[in-house]
Design goal:
Strand content: over 45%
Number of domains: 1
Helix content: 10-25%
Order of helices and strands: EHEEHE
CATH class: Alpha Beta
Structural class: alpha+beta
CATH superfamily: Ribosomal protein S6/Translation elongation factor EF1B
Shape: elongated
């Protein structure tokens, strides 16, 4: 079975967001069977930072809608953007 890697960019709703706390909450929210591979905090503009992360899952689990919905439902998350999906 093929696996896919998904790169997500998670935008907080303000510049005062604790990115370590956001990462921990995202880890707890992602659906079962989805593994976090790597993450980094990237500067966006004017002090705003985003969390970029790679997650992996079986291709048979479908698209990214469930991941995006789970993360978007977290307090303090303004936007979740899928930057890339690729087979590994």
């Amino acid at each position: 079975m093929a696996r896919v890697i998904i790169t997500l960019k998670i935008m907080p709703d303000g510049i005062d967001m604790n990115m370590d706390d956001l990462l921990e909450r995202v880890k707890g929210a992602i659906p079962e069977g989805t593994d976090i591979r790597a993450n980094e905090v990237i500067p966006v503009a004017f002090g705003l930072k985003a969390l970029r992360m790679n997650v992996a899952r079986e291709e048979s689990m479908g698209g990214t809608d469930d991941i995006e919905a789970a993360i978007s439902a977290l307090d303090g998350v303004a936007q979740v953007e899928v930057e890339m999906v690729s087979r590994i």
